Structures are given as structure tokens and as C-alpha cells.
Amino acid sequence: MALSGMRGLSVFISDIRNCQNKEQERLRVDKELGNIRTRFKNEKGLTPYEKKKYVWKMLYIHMLGYDVDFGHMETVSLISAPKYPEKQVGYIVTACLLNENHDFLRLAINTVRNDIIGRNETFQCLALTMVGNIGGREFAESLAPDVQKLLISSSCRPLVRKKAALCLLRLYRKNPDVVNVDGWADRMAQLLDERDLGVLTSSMSLLVALVSNNHEAYWSCLPKCVKTLERLARNQDIPQEYTYYGIPSPWLQVKTMRALQYFPTIEDPNTRRSLFEVLQRILMGTDVVKNVNKNNASHAVLFEALSLVMHLDAEKEMMSQCVALLGKFIAVREPNIRYLGLENMTRMLMVTDVQDIIKRHQAQIITSLKDPDISIRRRALDLLYGMCDISNAKDIVEELLQYLSTSDFAMREELSLKAAILAEKFAPDLSWYVDVILQLIDKAGDFVSDDIWFRVVQFVTNNDDLQPYAAAKAREYLDKPAIHETMVKVSAYLLGEYSHFLARRPGCSPKEIFSIIHEKLPTVSMSTVPILLSTYAKILMHTQPPEPELQNQIWAIFHKYESCIDVEIQQRAVEYFALSAKGAALADILAEMPKFPERQSALIKKAEDIETDTAEQSAIKLRAQQQMSNALVVTDQRPANGTPPVSQLTLVKLPSISSNSDNYSADEGARQENGTLTRVDPQPPSADLLGDLLDPLAIEGPPGAVQSEQNVPGVDGVPSAADTAAIVPIEEQKNTVQPIGNIAERFHALCLKDSGVLYEDPHIQIGIKAEWRAHHGRLVLFLGNKNTSPLVSVQALILPPSHLKTELSLVPDTIPPRAQVQCPLEVVNLRPSRDVAVLDFSYKFGSHAVNIKLRLPAVLNKFLQPLTLTADEFFPQWRSLSGPPLKLQEVIRGVRPLPLLEMANLLNSFRVMVCPGLDPNPNNLVASTTFYSESTRAMLCLVRIETDPADRTQLRMTVSSGDPTLTFELKEYIKEQLVDIPTSSPPPPMAPSVASPMAPVPPLNDPGAFLAGLL
Amino acid sequence: MIHFVLLISRQGKVRLTKWYSAYPQKERTKVIREISGEVLSRGPKLCNFVEWRGLKVVYRRYASLYFCMCINQDDNELEVLEIIHHYVETLDRYFGSVCELDLIFNFHKAYYILDELLLAGELQESSKKTVARLIAGQDALVETAKEEANSISNIIAQASK
């Protein structure tokens, strides 16, 4: 097929194709770019045809991957060409070359709008297509209402309306705050009656976006969706051209079922029945056929139906049908179906009562773990991980370990992490856990992060029964010819601590242990040497009276490292050498490590962080949490000054407290002996009994204690490591729950936008999403539990100032693990005021009660509606409001100096709209806005700011409105914003100290104290 | 939602790119490189989905050309796979047994057709007949404009003789 006359373009493409190598291609491209650049420079000489040709060439070059950093202007300017061919090229190439944020797009907005509201249908289509593909915020602001009009216009043909629907979808998806969809439910319901399937398909996509954001408003669309689905499923009245391989538009079917999944449930029994009939028909009536495309299309529908059934939580019978289908799918040869079978089975795990049926397919799933296709292997791994519980953990983990030796590198890291987590979560007994991790290190040492082996050390240290076993295992691995460095670390550590339990076994005398470990020394890196030195010191300590030969050997090594360039190694060598000369005291100094306090597994935390927070995964985790084995709960055996730890669920044998205390007194002795050692113990007995009791976290340790864990094995075992690292655990112990991020900054950010995080700490995240309509506000608090255990005694109270009427919906007492709870909060603004509502929020995590008081961003500016006035509208108003108390003027000093433009932006950001060009003096700003409250209703406010170009720290501000209180409050509000932007806040006295990033982060219970003053 | 569409030849040459999510220029090049690496290296009898950066690439090979569409993880994969086929059939109908060369030299046509099929990363029209009719209409408009231009330049040429 010949190119429509653009010979130059064809020639250029041929040239590129004839290039022998990349270098030639680059030369040819550069030549062309040079040519285009010169031609564009003398733009006057260009015919529309040539312009078109060059613009296409630019797109071609761009597609080849070269930077095209000029000519954008020419491309955009084609959009305003009067003739269709140029306009078409302008629109299409602009949409391909430029991003939504490109400055040049702004230049085109007017033309685009004229095309959209104009009468020319083809132009409308071009404009809608471009905006639908790349339209950003400014397009949404200026075009959304026009696009909405087109979509529901009865005089527009389907080809325009379907584009309008998707164009609106784009604008809404990108900027839901700009596109006003109030009252759109009825219109959407009407659109769902549409006969043209093109328009219906596009409208359904739009509906999906709308309901995903707010299903409440669109209940009226639900029956219509079911009707549409019925119509399609029964193939009633579907034009031939809209069937695809005999299936009535599979895409529309999928979209419709997707929309239905955003409604939490279907209340109306008739609608529900009709829907289930359709679903049943899809589930039962989808057969595998020869034709690939038909098969894909029908299964696209089937899988969507499966999701919908799962979502609706159908009767048990239908559910087991679904599981049966999925069981069939994961065994078929067709890879796509198998992939999707595995994927959907993983989703299915969140549905209760089917796990047992899924478990029956375990063998089949394990086969897929060995599939040649990595996509399928990944799905199989995920599913195995999700379905693992205490009953099948052994099988699954062993399968993963076996697979580890043959798996490809791309998956090994994920595989070993998952195996380690499952082993930890569901271990039937601890020796098995140790086995698994050691095998893991042996087989995939490179992929076993430090967290994993630190964790083994913790378990072994805290469980006396385990110690001889672990030491023996470590000893076995050392016999292997080439072992991974991580294995050297972990076995050296374990043998250093516990090899004396093995002393009577063959090959386990201190001397033999020493020499087999020492064999590895030449092969290890600097980071392992300190651990080996500690091991040697421990071995020495365990051979009392010393064997002279062994002692000399070890001393020689210490001596050798005394001049090591690495300061850690050097320090250890020097100190161990000196200590080992102390004879009997050595036994105290290097005594066995004390138990570790219980802490959340860094590993599990890491896995949680990695996983994207989708509902299905959290559901899986929820289940995992419920069935978790107790075998591995590490007990905190520290006698908290005589108070034994309470309510520790544990299967681990607790050694008697007295022996434990001995352990501590030995440590104490060591401390007294050597003043520098005071900081070694990660949990020094607190001198202040009260303080210890009042500080519940001292027992639990913050879940985020990764850092201290990393310090654990290397540092704690070594008295000499009283360095900076060793101090960390102590500091951490003193800390309480710290908010993450600056609370005041978060509040201020939320004053200017409508969604974001209000508060976060290691356990909870409180997010806010707000909508404001006139004097009403609807906020939704998102309370997200970040932990794998529930937050209890959750309480939220709103302490409203007198001018706000608030109503908070019920807040549940418990937030389940990894779950998010949404609590709507209605706000009504009664009258103008700058006071702020406070959220008094508390919860309990473990034994730890947390109470925080947070300012809510329901501030004055939220009840403003920006308004741009023309000079004709502004000045009469300005003059009519004369003098106090309706018009107030103040000279403000100490203003944070801002360029005028930034000040204008600042005003705009809190919805006081600057009207440019109204004030003849360029140093002045004039702005207007509408304020809404129950007492004032909609009230116009006018602001004028006169700045002094010579001194930006002062200005004169005049504010006027029809209500004296409003005038005063607004004036004060703007003043606060201008005087001190980062820390300004309506209630002045205490807040800045919270806000200042330099101030120490307030401890857990204190924000309340800070904020109490605000009330 | 489809985030982008890529047409890549077996040799890794890019034949068409369309971005529905905002990827800056540099990122685009990187994405194309990564996707080519992932997709082109896959053997024949594997599934049509590749997981990539928390998203999914649905791809299908036609002769020497790979059609790739990148979607969200929870989107319906098979539906998108058939959007690809729907696009190919539409191209086929337009060009009459389409081959890679058609798409190389008429890449702009491939864009026109794609714009009638997809918008905002969603399927816009599932009837091949409707798309064919719309594209024919556009072609006619361009043709008419060309004829007009020709006749005007003829008149001018004649007049200036």
C-alpha cells in the first residue's frame, strides 16, 4: 500500500531500513533532524504538506528512541490549522510526542476547547481523542463541563459520545477533584440504556472509574448493569458486528462484571437472583474450543465471572464450583489458562472455607513450580506461599528448598525469602526451623539476607533445648568442602556460643572446632573476621584451664590482627588479647549471651513492606496470622526487676528465673570489673522500677527494630564492642511509639489538599480524604492497621470547636491485622471561625496504649470556593463594602518575603483566587472567593494586598465581606499564612513547637499535651 | 487500564509506541528496553503474560512482530489479549493481509486506527466494521482536502502561465 503521497517520509524510512548498523542509523537521523530544524527555522517557507511530513518524521525518529527536543511548537501549532489533514496530524503527533505536563499543551487549550464546542464533528473527535489520551489538570479544569455536555447531548452522534465518555474518564481518573460528577448517577443510569454498543462500552468504563471511587452514589446503576449483562449473556438484540467469534461483546461483559465488583453487595433479591443466573450460565456453559481467540474471549468472561462470584460471596455450592473449575484450569496444558487458574486460586484464598479444597491441589501446584515458564512459576510460588499453613508447611517448604537448587537466578531471592518466612511462621518444631535455614544458606547463600541468619541466632539463643542441636548441625556443615560465607558466620557464631555442649563428640574438641573454623579464615571477607575472632575468644573461654598450644595459636591470631587496618577487627583483637590474660575472670566477661527480647521478625516485616498492600494479600496474611504456629514465639525471659513477663503465649520451655538472674548478675559483675562495658547488654536492668513498668514497650520492643537486630549477633556477643552501635538498643528501649513524619507538616499539607496521610506511626496509619461542598464537608478517615496483629480498644472522638457541627460514624473497637477501616465524618460549618477540630484517637497494641490528639484539616479555607471576578464585577462590590467592620485594613510586618507570583500561588492554594490584571499597580494583588457557612450562606469575600517592592517583609492587606466576623477571621487567616508559612497554624501558641522540624519529636503521649492547649 | 502499547519486531526494532500513562522521555526508552528484553527472550509455548514492575505485560506474536500492552495487575489479561487480536484484525482488514512492512511505511495509519480502537487506555470500539467506516471517512476527508489543494494550485499554475 502506497503512502498517501508523502514520498519524503517513505524515502527516509527506507534509508533508515538500509542502514547497516546503529552508527549509520544515528548519522542518518542526525542529518534528518538537522534538516528539519533548519526548515522549521524558516517556517514561513513551509507548506502545510511539508509541515505535516516533518512532524511525522519527528514522530518516527522519536519512536526509534532518539531524543527529539525541538519542533514541539510546530507540532502543537498544527492543531490550530484550519484544514482537517493538518489538524489531524497535529492532534495525533502531539498526543504521541508530548506528556500531559508539557508546557506547550497549555498553548493549545483554547483551540482544543473551540474544537470541542464547535459544530465540526470530525474536529470534536480529534480534540476529544487527544485530551482523552494526554489531558492533564488544566484540561480537566477548562474542558470537563464541555465534555460532559457532549456525552449526554442527544444531538451528538455515537462516535462523538463514546469518545466523550472515555475523555471524561481520563480527566476524572487524573483529577477527580476537578471534575464535578455530582448528580451524575442519574445520567450514568441513562447512559446504561444506550443502544449503541460503542457508547455503552465506553460508558461502562467510565462507570467503573466512578463506582470505584464512590459506589454509594451509583446504586441506581446496579440493576442496569445486571440487565446489560443479561442482555449480553442471552445474546438478545446484539448486532452481529458486536459479537466476537460468536460471543456477544466479551469486553462489555467483562467491564460490566468489573463495575459490579465495586458494589459491596447486592441487596435486592430479584436483581441478585438474575445476576446469579447469568453467572451460573457463564460458569457452566464455558467450554474449551479449538479456536484460540474464541477460547480466550470466553475465558476472559469466565474469569471475570469467577471474580464476581468470589466478591459476592456466593453460596457454598457455587463457590465449590468455582474451586473445581480452577482446579481443572491449573491442570490444563494451555499455559494462559493455567497461569490464570493459579492467579485466581491465590485470590480465592481470601474466601473462607475453600482452603481445604485448594490444598487438595497441592501436588498439581508444585508441578507448576517446575514449569518452563517463569510467569507460571511465579504464580505457583505465590499460591504455595499463600496456601501454606501449619498443616502443610513442612511439605511446601521442603519443596521450595528442593526447587531452590535448580531455580533460575531471577527467582532465587524471592524463593529463599518466602521459604524463610514460611519456616519461621509455621515451624512444627524449632529444630526443623534451624534445619531449613541452614539448608537455605547452604543452597542459596547469596540470596539469604542477614536478617535470616540473625533470626536463627535469636531463636537458638532463646531456646536452651535447641542449642546443642544447632551447634551439632553447624559443625556438620563445616565439614563440607566449600561453604558459603554466611554459613561460616552462622556456624562460627553458634559454635562459639554452644560448642562446649558437643565437647564429648568426636571431632568436637575445642581444638578441633577451632582448627576447622580457622581453616575458613583465609576465604572470608573483612566483615566475617570479627565474628571469627569472637568465636576464638569464646573457645578460649570454654577451655579453662587453657590448653597452652591452643591458647598460643589463638593469641598469635589476635596479635596478628592488632595492627589490622579495619578498626573493628583491630579493636576486637586488642581487647580479646588483653581480656584473655585475665584468666578466670574471662569466663564472666565472655559468658553466654543473654536471651533476646521478643521482637517482630524483621523478615516478616520486610516481606510485608515489600508486598504491595492489596486486599487479597492482606487477607492471606490475616489467615496466616490466625493459624500461626506458636512454636516460635520467642520468650522474653528477662526478669523485669522481679516481675515475670505476663501473658506470653509460648511453647518454649522457660528456664527457671533464678538461673536466669544468675546469668545477669554475672553480667553485672563483668560490668563492674570493666567500666567500659556498661553499655553492652541490650537490655540492662532498669534502675527505675516505675519507669520500667510505665514503659510497656520496654518488653515488646518496637516492631521496627530491624536496626537493633542487625546489631545483635556481631555486637552483643562481644564485650569490647561498646561502641556507637552497641548504644543503639538502649536508646531504642527508651523510645516509645514515634510518629513517622512530622504531624504538623502533614496537617498543613492537608489544609491545602484533600487527601493524604494525617498521622502515621509503626502501628497505624490514619489517612484522610475529604470532599467539600459549600458549607458541608464529608471526610473519610482511613484507619490502617500496619501490624499482623489486631489493634484493639480503638477509639476516635471528635472535639469540635463551636462553629463546626460534626458527626463521626461508628469506629470499630478492633482493627484487624493489615486491615483498613473507613470512618466517614460529616462536617457542617455554622459560622466563620479559625478554630480547629481535634481528633482524639487512641488504640492499644499489645500491652501498649497509645493516645494522640490530631488537628483535623477542616479549616476555614476548606469552606471557600475560588471565584474569579472581572473588573466590572469586582469594583462595584469593593466600593459597596466600605469601612470597618465589613472592610478591614491592616499593615502587616514580618511577612515572609515572597515574590509576587508565589504569593499569588499561595493565595490560590487556599482557594482565595487571585484575579490578575485587576489592580493597575503591578505590585498589588486582588483576589476574591466565596465563603460558605450556615449563618452567612454563600458570601463573597474580596481581598487586596499591596506590597512594597522595596521591602517585601511588609504589606498592607484589605479584606472585605458582607459579614464582620468573616472579614476579621479571613483577614487573620490570610495573615497567618503570609507571616510564617511553614509553621503557621490557626491556634498559635503551642503548635509551632510541634511543627518545627528541629524540635525533638514529641514522644507518644505528648501530642495530646501539646494540643490540649489548642482546645 | 492499558498503560502503553508497544509494537516491537523480533529484532527489537520499535514499530509503534503509544503511552496512556505519563512516562517521561527517558523513562520511555528504558521501558521499551526492559520490555523488549523480557518479551523477546520468551520461548514459543509459554503463556502470553509477563509480570513486570508490579504491572503486567500482555503480549502476542504475529509473524515477526510482537504486540505488547501493559496493564494493571488486577486487570483481565485475556480481555486485553483479545484487544490485541482485535487490533490486528482491524489492521488486517484495512491493509488487506497486513504485514510488518505495511506498518513500517504506514505507521501513521497504525496510529489512526489505534486511536479509533483505544482511548484513555480503554477499549473504545469493538466493532471492526465501525472502525473501518470511521477510518475510511477520515481518509476521504484527507483525500478531498488534497484534491481541493491540487485544484487550487492548478488554477494558480494555469493563471500564472
TrEMBL record, chain A:
One of its GO terms (cellular component) is AP-2 adaptor complex. Residues 660-684 are annotated as: Disordered. GO terms for molecular function: clathrin adaptor activity. It is found in: Membrane, Coated pit. SUPFAM superfamilies: ARM repeat, Clathrin adaptor appendage domain, Subdomain of clathrin and coatomer appendage domain. Adaptor protein complex 2 (AP-2) is a heterotetramer composed of two large adaptins (alpha-type and beta-type subunits), a medium adaptin (mu-type subunit) and a small adaptin (sigma-type subunit). Its main location: membrane. It is a peripheral membrane protein. Keywords: Coated pit, Endocytosis, Membrane, Protein transport, Transport. Pfam families: Adaptin_N, Alpha_adaptin_C, Alpha_adaptinC2. Residues 748-857 form the Clathrin adaptor alpha/beta/gamma-adaptin appendage Ig-like subdomain domain. GO terms for biological process: clathrin-dependent endocytosis; intracellular protein transport. Subunit of the adaptor protein complex 2 (AP-2). Adaptor protein complexes function in protein transport via transport vesicles in different membrane traffic pathways. Adaptor protein complexes are vesicle coat components and appear to be involved in cargo selection and vesicle formation. AP-2 is involved in clathrin-dependent endocytosis in which cargo proteins are incorporated into vesicles surrounded by clathrin (clathrin-coated vesicles, CCVs) which are destined for fusion with the early endosome. The complex binds polyphosphoinositides. The keyword Repeat does not apply. InterPro entries: Adaptor_Complx_Large_Subunit, AP2_complex_asu, ARM-like, ARM-type_fold, Clathrin/coatomer_adapt-like_N, Clathrin_a-adaptin_app_sub_C, Clathrin_a/b/g-adaptin_app_Ig, Clathrin_app_Ig-like_sf. This is AP-2 complex subunit alpha. The keyword GTP-binding does not apply. Belongs to the adaptor complexes large subunit family. A 1,2-diacyl-sn-glycero-3-phospho-(1D-myo-inositol-3,4,5-trisphosphate) binds at R7, G8, Y49, K53, Y54, V55, W56, K57.
UniProtKB/TrEMBL annotation, chain B:
It is a peripheral membrane protein. Pfam families: Clat_adaptor_s. Transmembrane segments: none annotated. It is found in: Cytoplasmic vesicle, Clathrin-coated vesicle membrane; Golgi apparatus. One of its GO terms (cellular component) is AP-1 adaptor complex. GO terms for molecular function: clathrin adaptor activity. Residues 1-137 form the AP complex mu/sigma subunit domain. Keywords: Cytoplasmic vesicle, Golgi apparatus, Membrane, Protein transport, Transport. Belongs to the adaptor complexes small subunit family. This is AP complex subunit sigma. It comes from Rhodamnia argentea.
